[in-house]
C-alpha cells in the first residue's frame, strides 16, 4: 500500500516472511511453541530462584533479571507476531508501533547489560572469591539491575521522537512482523542522517562496549584460571562460566549475523534476512532457560524440588 504526501500514516502494515506467505499457517504452530517455551521456561526459572533459599545469590539474581527480560521481550513481540501469522492481521497503529519499537530495543539493550553484569559476577567469583560477598552484596546487585534498566530507557527515549519528526510517505509496509527503528526510518522521504548516526551511536556505545567488556572479563578469567595448578580445579572454575558463555553466544551471534547481512549481504534473499531477524529476537528467550536448566546443577535441582512439591 503506497502512501503519498503523508507525514504520519494512521497505521503500518506488518509483513511475515517474504516468499513463504503460503507457509505462514504452518509456521504459526512452531512460533506458538517457542513462545510457550520462552514464557513457561523463564517463569519456572523465576519461581525456582524465588522459592529456593540456596539460590539467593548474586549469580541467580542476575539470572532472574535475564529471565524477566526474556519474558518481557517475548510479550512485547507476541501480539503482532501471532496476529500476523495466525490471524493474517497485518495492521498496527502508528503510536502502537512506536511503543513496540521502543520496548523491543529497550529490552534487547537491558539483556545486553545484564549479560555484562553476569560476566562481572563470574569474574569476581573466580578471580577474587574471598571478596565475592563484599563486592556483590544485594544492594549492589539491585543497583546494577536498576542502572542497566535506566541506561536503556534513557538512551532509547529519543528514538520514538526521532521517528515521529520524519514524514512517512514512501510506504507504510514494514519488513517484519514487529516494529524496529531501522525498518521504520527507511520509509521516510526526508533526511534520516540523524536517525542513522544516533542508531550507530547506540549500537557502538552500548552493545559494542558491553561485548568488549564481556570479552575482557573472560580474558582476565582465563588468565586467573591458568594460574591454578590443578587441572581439575581449572575445569571446575571454567564450568561455572559455560551457561553464561552459551547465553552470550545465543544473544550476540544472531545480532552480529543480522547486522552483517543487513550491511553487506545485498544479494542475500530478503526472506533470509527476515528469518535471521526473527532468530535474533526469538531464540535467546527460548534457549536461555533451557541452557541454565541443563547446565546449572543448582537450578536443575531447585526445579526438580519445586516440581516434586507441586506434585505432592
Structural class by secondary-structure content: mainly alpha
Oligomeric state of the chains? Answer: single chain
CATH architectural category: Up-down Bundle
Overall 3D geometry? globular
Number of domains: 1
Which regions are unreliable across 5 or more consecutive residues at pLDDT < 50? 1-5
> What is the residue-averaged pLDDT?
88
Over all CA atoms, what is the radius of gyration? 21 Å
Task: For the record, give the distance between the C-alpha atoms at the N and C termini, rounded to a whole number.
Answer: 57 Å
Count of distinct strands: 2
CATH 4th-level superfamily: Rhodopsin 7-helix transmembrane proteins
The strand order across the widest sheet is 1-2
The helix tally amounts to 12
Question: Topology as H/E string?
Answer: EHHEHHHHHHHHHH
Family: Belongs to the G-protein coupled receptor 1 family.
Keywords: Cell membrane, G-protein coupled receptor, Membrane, Olfaction, Receptor, Sensory transduction, Transducer, Transmembrane, Transmembrane helix
Membrane topology: Multi-pass membrane protein
Main location: membrane
Descriptive overview:
The chain is mainly α and 312 residues long. The protein has a single domain, classed as Rhopdopsin 7-helix transmembrane proteins (Up-down Bundle), CATH 1.20.1070.10. It contains twelve helices and two strands. It has a two-stranded antiparallel ribbon. GO terms for molecular function: G protein-coupled receptor activity; olfactory receptor activity. Belongs to the G-protein coupled receptor 1 family.
